[in-house]
Amino acid sequence: MYPYIYLRGLRHVDYTVFGVAEGQKRYWDDQFQRWMAFSSGQQVKRSIIEHLITRLNEQPAPVTFYFEAPTLKEKEVTTPGNPNFADQLVGGWMIANAGGTSRTIKRRSPLSISALRPIHPLLGGMHEEPISFDRSDRPDIHKVVVKDTDGRELSSNEISELLSGSDRSLRRKWIPKDKNRRTSGLFIYDVAIDLRTLFCVSVNQLEPELTEETIKDLKTQGWFETRNVFGECLVAPKERREKIIPALSHALINWRILTNQSRTFSPMETLAVAIGENANKVTDAIRAKLNQDGEKPVAQPIVDDSIDDVNVFVSLAGAGYFVTNVESPDALDSAERRLIDLITEFDFDNQIPS
Predict the structure, then answer these.
(1) In angstroms, what CA-CA distances link 273 with 48, 60, 113, 223, 276?
(2) 101, containing H or E segment
(3) End-to-end Cα distance, the chain
(4) pTM for the complete prediction?
(5) Do the beta carbons of residue 275 and residue 311 sit within 8 Å?
(6) Residue 131 forms beta bridges with which residues?
(7) How does pLDDT run across 153-201, given as a tens digit for each residue?
């Protein structure tokens, strides 16, 4: 009963943006001397959890924001720390009150999630796009206000005189191209699932994950005591697990980044998925190979379905980006079913044989 599942997904990203800060999230690759666009693991995690709760048709856990009067200084942000909420069960939590007035309550997420990044530095690029906010086509309905250094609003005649001899438009705002970077290419993400803690929450009060009040409440709702390698814990009822497992499996494969894409949406279609119990073999199944025979080095994406103990699933779209003979119209559905089987096979109720 191996407690880990590893998943690698390969996606095609087409002229999109992962973050609004400076037009794109990026990092520098020292070996190939290139800027690399990426979506952080936190952003990927949030996208997965958003997909999970949407699939379950449930609300996320409520969040409380604290401020200090009268300056409205920002203080702590807290959540219930309750695994009855699917986003908290899967995403974890930390409740730390300012001033140390009460104990810190925290649970590590059972999912470890990498950044979404190019499968190889030569297979992902960034492009700069000059854009404008332009309303110059209807000058009669859009108002322009010009103020002097004292804050006085200039009259229409004063504005006309100011613009005389200039080709400047006041109904068009140009946004520098270096603030609007877009990315395209083949991107990968990795997920490690710790089955030991996926549905089990520790009741150890020396390093608490739950308050005593929450423990009592969970027991009344069908959570029962068991034991894993970390000690005494509560495990979610079977009915709850059976509802979450298919939704989580679907989310891990079909999540989408929807924020920051109002004008640059990319479906980010999944080309291939590799699933197994050995992280090294899973990463071998979806990889890139460097070829330096020509004037310039080139990289070739490789999806290898011959790796022992790794299940590889290739979508129809994948055949357009790498050589394969195993593409299938139901590949992603099959990947979901494989995840469901692997998670369901784990004995959450009896992790430590008596």
Answers:
(1) 15, 28, 15, 33, 10
(2) none
(3) 15
(4) 0.88
(5) yes
(6) 175
(7) 888 888 788 878 777 777 677 666 666 788 999 999 999 999 999 999 9
